[in-house]
Amino acid sequence: MSQSIQVGRSDYDRVMMPNYAPVQMIPVRGEGSRLWDQQGREYVDLAGGIAVNALGHAHPQLVEALTAQAGLLWHVSNILTNEPALRLAHKLAAATFADKVFFANSGAEANEAAFKLARRWAHNTHGADKHEIIACTNSFHGRTLFTVSVGGQPKYSQGFGPALQGITHVPYNDVDALRAAVSSRTCAVVIEPIQGEGGVIPADPAYLQAARELCDAHQALLVFDEVQSGMGRTGKLYAYMHGNVVPDILTTAKSLGGGFPIAAMLATETVASHLEVGTHGSTYGGNPLGCAVAERVLDIVNTPEVLAGVAEREQQLREGLMALATRYGVFTSVRGKGLLLGAVLSEAWQGRAKDIQATAERHGLLVLQAGPNVMRIAPSLVIPQADISEALARLDQALAELVG
After folding, report:
1. What is the pLDDT of residues 298-352, one digit of tens each?
2. CA angle at residue 69 from 63 to 72, to 5 degrees?
3. Domains within the chain, CATH numbers bracketed
């Protein structure tokens, strides 16, 4: 039997790499949209594990799915396939534009696979010169060397050079800049339908339409990164479903597993056929545990009741946040879609998103940042409306303390 040792926040600094700066409290238990720390203090969770815990903490159906699969089969590698992976792939393809699915463990891995597939497709169909990827400034696509290079935030790629070549960045939502960048050398245009880390900024429908038309005109692929915006987060199963623009490749993670690590790249048959045997892989990708949980998440989320409930909760949060904006002058607007929302800080509060996050935590509320000027919230898609009311009351208390 393994020996249990007592640990606290100071142990993080002692034994963990210093690339994160976690807060002082350590959660030990969760239920629904509530968390409890080592001291038994309770928090309302509007952070959702950074848009991951789509059904909250310890959802009984997810616990049941994981427990049942754990008693059957954990891992077999990709020398063998497995039933949970096949069922999940069938359901994702049936629910989206896609014909084929590749499973991975994280959003970064799904994006890495998408970018590799785009270049492989272009190489096979048009030759080696067609390899350029057009992405957006302030985008975020993961932490691998390829994905930080495609991501448009230099702070994540500086110091890891030399940089990968063949990647161009253009301003988000700028049709003219996109039009000027796309050429016969472009293999893919990569867009987040809602920039999450970049400030919770939705793409203009006209911008997405222009991207689709430019890709078609120049025989390039349109790739949507829906790692954060997917799996019901916006009130549709995927954010692209709010409009008429359909990508060639889509990546999904975060909410897909409801907290269990799993990701997927979805693609059309025409594109997917270029990921031939041996060209890419993942030892743990498509493992039975993750796929069993994700299948249950998909079954629950992709229902009219849950998706309609996202819009109802969005309205409650928007109204509550704007009431606080009127009272304290901290926020100027709330942007985003569904339950991926960003409260934009007023001029007098620029750079203080971290202060709001820390003060909210002291008042028993977990929220996020999206840069220094945006408070981001991404709670459970089924968070009880009473918990939203309690969260807004605690945020009220936190802002009152900050305003003084």
Report:
1. 999 999 999 999 999 999 999 999 999 999 999 999 999 999 999 999 999 999 9
2. 145
3. 9-59+304-403 (3.90.1150.10), 73-301 (3.40.640.10)
Binding-site residue ranges for N(2)-acetyl-L-ornithine: 143, 282
Per-residue tokens: 226 = 């829906």
Q: What angle do CA 377, 194, 311 make, to 5 degrees?
A: 55
Beta strands, E only, 32-110: 34-37, 42-45, 100-104
Residue 249, phi then psi, degrees to nearest 5: -135, 140
Q: Are 208 and 247 in contact (CB under 8 A)?
A: no
Active site residues: 140, 225, 254
Contact call for residues 233 and 253 (beta carbons, < 8 A): no
Residues that constitute the known binding site for pyridoxal 5'-phosphate = 107-108, 140, 225-228, 283
202 - beta bridge partners? Answer: 194
Structure tokens, 261: 């690590």
Write out the H or E segment, with its range, that includes residue 45. Answer: strand 42-45
Quick check: 56 and 30 in contact, CB under 8 A?
yes
